């Protein structure tokens, strides 16, 4: 009689275990990213390594292609969280938003663009840009502002010393350069390395190395969302932190192998090259904390570019509580 009884107990145990598992609520998060780039490798590590799932989160990722479109998605409740340049929160704040957008976790801490020349240049000097046609990024965006900041740092007035082109849509800048527009262009990876491999251009400098640390890309949400979903946001931030530590502790090759499903059309050797380039210049933040020094550097760069509508205190648009809780 013992065997039937034991079997019955096992069945009940399995039933209650399954019931308990099914009762765990999986929370869905709609995440909008400004572009899909290897620059955001830690995010894709969090997705591919199931770090979000470990926290009970189902993250639905969509690419919104541009800071204005990404912010529109967030403001119109088309997304819960956005990954975009933190300068956008200052623009929204300056417009008097009743429900401000708050930065709560940093992903990248340097600019992610590179200066690409049409012709190979040995011993590149920034003064070589003077008098050239420069294909820059969209006015008011972080790439453009950092680009101008670096140029001025090297004694180049973007408006006077260059034939500066800024009227081409972000998604078409690389195509414009490939078709013959400009002698120099400011490009993100992996496009810069792909152009170099194909002989369409040559990387001669890094804007990230030149500009120093800045909260270039951060996760942000409406203040009301952070207030009403504190546990969810903390889980999200924890998953990102896991990914940041994983990226810090692994080689470019290992990272490339993990994120490859996100970039099926990009050769593995290019992925590895790009990731190594970003790792070596410290582009990937090693924790999600957006500190005050970085925030002030961001505003200095915006001010230098003439794009800072108002100077905002760190604590007004940055919430470090979720990131700081992880280190306790």
UniProtKB/TrEMBL annotation:
Keywords assigned by UniProt, alphabetized: Signal
Flavoprotein listed as a keyword: no
Places the protein is found: Periplasm
Superkingdom, natural source: Bacteria
Coiled coil (residue ranges): none
Signal peptide span: 1-20
Gene3D superfamilies: Periplasmic binding protein-like II
Entries under Pfam families matching the protein: NMT1_2
Entry similarity comment: Belongs to the bacterial solute-binding protein SsuA/TauA family.
Protein name per its UniProtKB record: NitT/TauT family transport system substrate-binding protein
Organism: Aeribacillus alveayuensis
């Amino acid at each position: 009689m013992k065997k039937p009884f034991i079997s019955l107990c096992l069945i009940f145990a399995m039933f209650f275990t399954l019931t308990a598992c099914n009762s765990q609520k999986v929370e869905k998060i709609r995440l909008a990213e400004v572009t899909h780039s290897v620059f955001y490798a830690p995010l894709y590590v969090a997705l591919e390594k199931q770090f979000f799932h470990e926290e009970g989160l189902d993250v639905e990722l969509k690419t919104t292609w541009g800071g204005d479109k990404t912010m529109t998605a967030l403001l119109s409740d088309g997304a819960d969280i956005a990954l975009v340049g933190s300068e956008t929160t200052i623009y929204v704040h300056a417009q008097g938003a009743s429900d401000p957008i708050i930065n709560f976790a940093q992903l990248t801490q340097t600019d992610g663009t590179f200066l690409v020349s049409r012709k190979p240049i040995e011993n590149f000097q920034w003064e070589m840009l003077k008098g050239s046609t420069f294909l820059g990024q969209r006015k008011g965006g972080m790439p453009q502002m950092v680009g101008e900041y670096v140029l001025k740092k090297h004694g180049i007035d973007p408006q006077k010393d260059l034939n500066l082109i800024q009227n081409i849509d972000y998604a078409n800048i690389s195509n414009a350069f490939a078709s013959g527009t400009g002698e120099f262009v400011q490009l993100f990876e992996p496009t810069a390395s792909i152009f170099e491999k194909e002989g369409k251009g040559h990387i001669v400098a890094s804007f990230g190395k030149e500009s120093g640390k800045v909260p270039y890309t951060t996760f942000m949400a409406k203040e009301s969302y952070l207030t009403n979903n504190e546990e969810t946001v903390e889980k999200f931030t924890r998953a990102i932190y896991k990914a940041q530590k994983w990226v810090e502790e692994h080689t470019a090759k290992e990272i490339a192998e993990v994120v490859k499903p996100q970039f099926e059309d990009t050769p593995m050797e290019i992925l590895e090259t790009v990731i190594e380039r970003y790792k070596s210049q410290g582009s990937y933040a090693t924790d999600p904390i957006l500190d005050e020094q970085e925030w002030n550097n961001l505003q200095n760069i915006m001010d230098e570019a003439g794009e800072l509508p108002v100077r905002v205190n760190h604590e007004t648009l940055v919430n470090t509580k979720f990131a700081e809780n992880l280190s306790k």
